């Protein structure tokens, strides 16, 4: 199964990945985690991406696309059960690049899971999380970037018939059940 997780920062995508991996055997690619690993390792790529991450802006297209291409190549070879993307695509250009990439390797998406959580709840969650880029100003900017650049992907994937909306509030277990129902329906 080939899955994209879509939702605002703090909508709970990362929290649900382990359960999805356990049930469906997919491998996961999370661009935020990959970028943080590059920053921690002090690579050239990490040095380029860091100012954007600190400001809550999208990292440059070429950096992120390169990471995704590498990640997918490895995954396609090592995991026949498919993959799940968290944090990618994040704007229209990334979504179109992903389409092209997946068409080329003959592995189109099966489903885009959209986590629906209201704005107030998201700010509360992010402020409680305490990651380096979880201060109030960066959060506000990440939400602005989400609204402006990422939210249009809801329409994009709806038009492709791939979007399934999941209510992202309630207990982790409840949300997990909803996701399972949505994924079982396309599995
Ligand atoms: P969150 O889901 O809380 O926003 P992420 O770990 O997904 O956290 O992303 C953290 C930061 O990494 C983003 O604010 C952005 O700077 C960068 N980033 C992650 N994914 C992408 C992407 N697909 N394109 C550009 N930048 C990205």
**Biggest sheet strand line-up:** 2-3-1-4-5
Mean pLDDT: 94
Largest sheet: 5 strands, parallel
So what's the overall shape?
A: globular
Please write out the topology.
Elements: E1 2-6, H1 13-24, E2 27-30, H2 31-40, H3 44-55, H4 61-78, E3 83-86, H5 92-104, E4 111-116, H6 119-129, H7 136-150, H8 152-159, E5 163-167, H9 172-186
Parallel strand pairs: 1-3, 1-4, 2-3, 4-5
Helix pairs in contact: 1-9, 2-3
The chain binds adenosine-5'-diphosphate.
Please describe what this structure looks like.
This protein has 187 residues and is of the alpha/beta class. It has two domains: 2-26 and 81-186, Rossmann fold; 30-80, no CATH class. Helices cover 61% and strands 13% of the residues. It is built from nine helices and five strands. The protein has a five-stranded parallel β-sheet, sandwiched between helices. Helix 1 (13-24) packs across helix 9 (172-186) and helix 2 (31-40) crosses helix 3. The protein starts with a strand and ends with a helix. The mean pLDDT is 94. Bound molecules: adenosine-5'-diphosphate (ADP).
């Amino acid at each position: 199964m080939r899955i994209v997780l879509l939702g605002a920062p703090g909508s709970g995508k990362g929290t649900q990945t382990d359960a999805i991996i356990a049930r469906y055997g997919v491998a996961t690619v999370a661009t935020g985690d990959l970028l943080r690993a590059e920053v921690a390792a002090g690579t050239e790529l990490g040095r380029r991406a860091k100012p954007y991450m600190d400001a809550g802006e999208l990292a440059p297209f070429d950096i992120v696309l390169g990471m995704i291409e590498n990640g997918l190549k490895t995954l396609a070879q090592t995991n026949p059960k498919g993959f799940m993307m968290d944090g990618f695509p994040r704007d229209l250009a990334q979504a179109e690049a992903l389409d092209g990439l997946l068409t080329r390797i003959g592995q189109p998406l099966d489903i885009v899971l959209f986590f629906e959580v209201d704005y107030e709840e998201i700010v509360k969650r992010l402020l409680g999380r305490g990651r380096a880029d979880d201060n109030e100003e960066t959060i506000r900017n990440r939400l602005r970037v989400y609204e402006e650049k990422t939210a249009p992907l809801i329409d994009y994937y709806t038009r492709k018939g791939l979007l399934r909306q999941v209510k992202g509030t309630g207990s982790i277990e409840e949300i997990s059940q909803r996701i399972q129902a949505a994924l079982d329906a396309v599995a």
